Amino acid sequence: MAEDVKKEGIVARATKSFKATKSELKKVVWPTRKQLVNNTVIVIAAILVVGLVIFGLDSLFSTIAGFVLGR
Known about the structure:
The protein has two helices and no strands.
């Protein structure tokens, strides 16, 4: 019967989960400091470029809408 199987307690499940997580983190290849800084600079530059493009398009479309609507 299914009731014969004893359920694990919350502490046992948490311990098993913690051990599995710790085991997986040992497999991670972490970036070097130089790689981390380089990737961070690239991401920030990309965000700034996209932000400027969106700002430019918004300004352009607002100006066009102002002319069309006579404002």
